[in-house]
Amino acid sequence: MNKEKRCPNCQIAFACTTECWCSAFPPIVPLEENQGCLCPDCLKSAIQDRISHWTAHLDAKKIKTIQKMGKPTSLIEGIDYTVNEQGFYVFSSWYLLRQGKCCGNGCRNCPYPKKT
Questions:
Q1: Which is one Pfam family of this protein (predicted)?
Q2: How many CB atoms lie within 10 A of CB 39?
């Protein structure tokens, strides 16, 4: 069942279904009461802002909270990765934190302390 909604931020109309596209996004943006659902672009932007805020000053508590979210079920460009000039995926520190530990591959955005 499709339901048309209108984003309270940008006023763009978008479809909402029982298997909503928004469930792929990390659940870190609290919805404001009586605000309604955001469109894909506004939700992505809000989540990017929240991730930047959370990861700016990481501490053990924040790292554990992020890791408890577990691995993402699907990857979202701009949140979990970017594509570099050579066309390769570059995982974000957010994605790497959700993996739960350093993989040891020397990732560009590795948020884990280097072992000596």
A1: DUF5522
A2: 21
Q: Taking the model in full, what pTM does it have? A: 0.78
- Per-residue pLDDT tens for 44-53? 998 999 899 8
pLDDT digits (tens, 9 = 90+) for 4-16: 888 988 999 988 8
Residue partners of 3: CB distance under 8 A and separation at least 6 = 15, 16, 17
Which of 37, 45, 47, 46 has the alpha carbon at shortest distance from 4?
A: 37
| Distances in whole angstroms, Cα of residue 45 to Cα of each of 9, 50, 81, 106 | 11, 9, 14, 28
Q: Which two tokens stand for residue 39?
A: 């469109």
